[in-house]
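Researcher: Good morning. I'm working through a list of sequences from a screen, and I'd like to move beyond sequence-only analysis. For each chain I'm collecting a predicted structure so we can compare shapes side by side. This is the next one on the list. No need for commentary yet; just the structure.
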Amino acid sequence: MVNLSQIKTYFGIDDAQTSIRREILGGITTFVTLAYIIVVNPKILEAAGIPFGPSMVATILTGFLGTMLMGIYARRPFAIAPYMGQNAFVAFTLVKIMGIPWQTALGLTFISGLIFALLTLSHIRPWLVNAIPQQLKLAFSGGIGLFLSFIGLNISGLIRLGVPDAPVTLGYLNRPETLLAALGFILISLMMVRRLNGALLLGILGITGLGFLLGKVPLPPQWISMPPDIRPILGQLDLLGALNPALLPILLVFLVLIFVDTMGTLIGIAYKANFLDSQGRLPDVEKPMLCDSLATMAAATLGTTTAGAYIESIAGIEAGGRTGLTAVVTALLFLCALFFAPLFSSVPAFAYGPALVVVGMMMLSSLKDLDTGDLTELIPAFTTLVMICFTYNLGIGMAAGFIVYPLIKTLSGRSGDVAPGLWVLSALSLAFFIFYPY
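Model: Good morning. Structure tokens for this chain:
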């Protein structure tokens, strides 16, 4: 029988730094902030012809398997789930516009996961990550913060899509849901100022409760339900179709987009959690990378799209999660969601959106270390920041930074500052923009 002492030893829990109670709280907070993926991911993939019910089960199982592997093997408090952005790329670009069957798109997803697993085991992928300069890593963290805040503001209704001359505008502040989101932001902020443990989770639950009382959050018709049958999409990926030479440019785009997304997210989360060493590197980085590679292969087999570490993991880290036990708790909650999906999916966007805004704000602390006196460092970092935020895509912003950094350094006569691995990333990023299916 495993006891608390063995759990602490395995996960390296030091009561001076964290505790089992904090790890559990961190795991719950992470899950609550990303539970929306249980419904949103299958809703997006439904546009590609993947049935909603089986897709929801595939989403949950991918989150469970990937996050549990992250907790037990990598021992990091990072949650893994199907990526937002990647699902839309598959559903709307590959399937709807290019006419690629969803089974073939899943085949591409599996192949990309396999390639990344091989690159990780051969230490090529960690070598590329370690070639990224410190200033770009700071920009990744800050850019993710802006991106996360942008997502939170948008889904909570505090901002909304505008007209062509003003793409983003103020939300409808005369709606109760928007006012509840604003109240959520204030409540979470005040609790964090007063250093109240569990501020994020308490804020989310408090606003959800108010939503119920005001009739703005409908009670689910049933709290417990059996999961839908996953067999219509289980193992339906088309590997032979994905190996069609005509799809090689699409595979390249897939690889670059996934690589920069997963890598940038890992670096951004690790920076915020103070996991990076004195050289700005994440120790044993190959372990979480192998986890997201295997999770992506599992996702494609189950019937969903690319999986990787979620930026919402920062919410759990802010709540006190520091070890793999946080991820284990999140994974177990994913498993519970198979039977309690109506309950977990009832948490409204105006309740968890403000939490994402606050978490994004906390990630901006990395920008204080930007070298604003050296324009050859500042320009690539700024490019990364604005492209992440204004294209609403982590991968595009990071790829732009990989191109601009060596270009500015070389034209300034400082090509010696560019590591060999960064030239590889720059070439891949350039190919990404050339072959991207605009």
